[in-house]
Amino acid sequence: MTGVLDDYMVDPTLSFLDKTRIQAQVLVPVLRALRAELGRDKADAIVKLALRDWSKQMFAAIGESVDGTPRRKWAAMQGHMNEVSGPSVEFETHRKDKEAFEFDVTRCRFAEFFRALDEPELGSLLACHTDFDIAAASGDEVTLERNQTIMQGAPSCTFRYRFAPR
Fold first, then answer.
1. For the whole model, what pTM was predicted?
2. At what angle do helices 16-38 and 70-85 cross, to 10 degrees?
3. Of 27, 86, 130, 155, whose CB count within 10 A is highest?
């Protein structure tokens, strides 16, 4: 199946978790070498800035490639992201209507992987923050509030999407 994130996925036959594991195989040794040379705070700040800029630019470009309204762009990207990450997360939906989409992720294999590496902050950058970049592709049509994540040690990830009135 083809989708709006295929270029991002590089090889659509790979799961999103496998893609993230491949990224980590490269990034973890680089991050640790930078920490040894520059100190933890400076190295983490450099990596955070680089990965955040990369993700924002990439999802903005993906959003521009999707036809339709800003909310349609979000729906296409979010829908495909749910498909590719779905097998790696368990969630409970609390609300889904024209005003909001609210759910909690109750199990996250991404978090399990990065916490086992003792690199939850890197996991947050590669997996968690992309949700905000996808929402940003909608302009002001979709906003996301998330007060906690499993990656950072909470029992669940709280997703609270709000939709602008049409």
1. 0.86
2. 90
3. 130
